[in-house]
Amino acid sequence: MTNRLSCPVGSHSLDLRGSDARGLRRLRQWLSAVLADLGERHVTEVMQVADELASNAYEHGDGPQMVRLHHCVVDGRTTIEVEDSNLETVTVGQSRFGEAAHRGRGLVLVQNIARAWGVRRRAGTGRKTVWAVLACQAEPRADGQVGAMAVS
């Protein structure tokens, strides 16, 4: 499979429709399995971003509907997408519970980890997709071989 940039990708999806916040555990387990051949640092940062995007879907709506992961083997670019049914505007650094709640910093984390991120509304579906792209580079594995990926 190739994307519009003619980059071979590994694409995976996880259906979380109807799940409650325990779906976050399922998401982490799925990412661990899908990213098993990648470097620990890469897996950790992809998990942080995916966890934050999915948590927002649980907190501000009915939870994530679908999670998609695309990994380009040429340049190491990894894209995580979380689709949900909440069409509210996404706001960075603010919580609907106010500053005293010590919340609203998750998208700041995403912004700091990701090369790019954004929101895509899906016309006529009542859904949106929040996505983030993480940059990767080769990282030596424990066995001394190079080939696993790490977020830069």
UniProtKB/TrEMBL annotation:
It comes from the Bacteria. InterPro entries: Anti-sigma-factor_SerPK (IPR050267), HATPase_C_sf (IPR036890), HATPase_dom (IPR003594). Keywords: Kinase, Serine/threonine-protein kinase, Transferase. The keyword Kinase applies. CDD domains: HATPase_RsbW-like. GO terms for molecular function: protein serine/threonine kinase activity. This is Histidine kinase-like protein. The lineage of its organism: Bacteria, Bacillati, Actinomycetota, Actinomycetes, Pseudonocardiales.
